[in-house]
Amino acid sequence: MDAAGESCDVVIVGGGHNALVAATYLARSGLSVTILERLPHVGGAAVSSPVFDGVDARLSRYSYLVSLLPETLIADLGLDLELRSRDTASYSPYDGGGLLVETSAGAATEESFRSLTGSDTELAAWRRFYAEVETVAGAIAPTLLRPLPHIGELRDQVEMAIWTDLVDEPLGTALERRFSHDLVRGVVGTDALIGTFASLHDRTLIQNRCFLYHLIGNGTGEWRVPVGGMGAVAGELERVARAAGADIRTNCEVDGIDARDDGATVCGDGFVIETDWVLSGVAPYVLARLLGDPPPPKPSGSQFKINLVVSRLPRLTSGVDPATAFAGTLHLGESMSELETAWAQAAAGSLPERAAGELYCHTLTDRSILGPDLAGTEAQTLTYFGLHTPYDVLPDEVAAQRAYSQFLAALNEHLAEPIESLILGVEHRTPAQIEDALGMPGGHIFHGDLQWPWLEEDERPRDAAERWGVSTGHRRVLLCGSGARRGGAVSGIAGHNAAHAILEALPIMEHP
Q1: What is the largest CA-CA distance in the chain?
Q2: Whole-prediction pTM value?
Q3: Among 94, 142, 195, 508, which one has the highest count of C-beta atoms within 10 angstroms of its own C-beta?
Q4: Is residue 451 part of a domain?
């Protein structure tokens, strides 16, 4: 490539799904946009891959469900996506039975709660809690594609009791006050721990922030299955970005960014690009290195990811239909006491003695990810997301194998047959392996701890980047990935907001 004189309006470093969203909005507005992605493909963690040799299945290898992707953004970009609902929200096996929660709670959910607790009191508390949570989601969701609201604007729209439970006090306090059963507390609390390493009583409230993000998607918090897998989401985003005129370059790793008040120079092996704006789809920790800034503390991911293909779903000792139990999220070792024990052991530097995590079966809802030979059989894919397994406790393959064995033991406790006899293919990924594969520092799936999606009382944004929650310490370098104020998960929100921050700033820059 002849790098001399190369320039464009916006360079986007990293080609994840948020980068594709930002590129589409900016290119449609008439700006020249170049995406630089170090991997041979775009999409970041939102990809599908043929994971196993000889097994014709394209798995959503890293991220796998969609909730936070706003319907309005899908329509605005013109994405051709099908997101399917699941009849089962979750199933939590216990000795002698299982707690079934339907997506639209009906008679089966009522009977399941009654069998677990012996009365209807816990179910009533469950319904009351989530009805209150829905009011918070309904207040926050419409703001996610706008400049950051002030905290008071949101707080005034909901009852103080639920605001206190979700925002002011550790979530564990609310769970212990509102629910009496250990398993019910854990089933609720697990949404506070996906991708976040914390006690439910952590005073920093990082678990509360994680819980909030899991429950606010489109005002309902429902997690849906992308038909075709997560690769279908990235594929559609790439399609509209290219159609808008974005220049997408793969196998282009950025080595450095020289940021100035009037623009930046972005360089790598074989290219030097002068640009007015840089959008960063990489983690803030990585961006600091590229800019030559002092790095922030390195994040630490906390998940142990396992992908499986099985010849059929295993039978459960509870007798529940596997197609019901595995259709939603199947919890393992996720009572509140088990979660807290696992966290304490990991916080002390040891791999937890018992696995805690959840399983999801994509192919019960969408068999299009299976090749023709598998699609006509009983074969299914299973994805496991293990909790409280931070970077430091899975240092090598020996530890990873131990964690995998613990997963098998935790699942087999509830099966009428060993899962090993049904496995056609398996892979597992530690945070360190996720870091190597995706460039996520510490394997942290959110690029760092999630932040509240609002401005605090004393915050007064000084420019468009701060108004949209995408600012860095450099005027012409903005965040467009999961490290942005409202980043995290596959949502496109950070990409949308970074693009709109630039578009808002342009008239000001041109006519100060």
Answers
A1: 75
A2: 0.96
A3: 195
A4: yes
